[in-house]
């Protein structure tokens, strides 16, 4: 399988300011509220991401924990992380959120799942199941929260 097929993305316009949307993404405690994969169960409060190098811990619905290593960050615009089992090196997949303000009240939101560097065969089936429709579900849920619904 070519690497190009290992990058999945979805995008849409959200009727909310980029700052409002970004707060819902950069605060891990908020992420289970909008997760379209129904994979995230909980995260402790007080882990708000502030830059590259931050690590936040998330509880999954499969009763496991993940450390998420922030590898890209621009306040209010971009955040990306590589998940791993606690204390382990990330196995090679990345979740990215990009926010592009259209105007003061509208933002283009793009969510990307990149598993082009994933080499762990045990994770391949789940990676393949992460479709643009699932990414779009996360954006749609996020939009509902950010737009005040």
Automatic annotation (TrEMBL):
Domain of life: Bacteria
Segments forming a coiled coil: none
Any Pfam family: Polyketide_cyc2
Family annotation (CDD domains): SRPBCC_7
InterPro entries documented for this protein: Polyketide_cyclase/dehydratase (IPR019587), START-like_dom_sf (IPR023393)
Protein name: Polyketide cyclase
Lineage of the species this protein comes from: Bacteria, Bacillati, Actinomycetota, Actinomycetes, Mycobacteriales
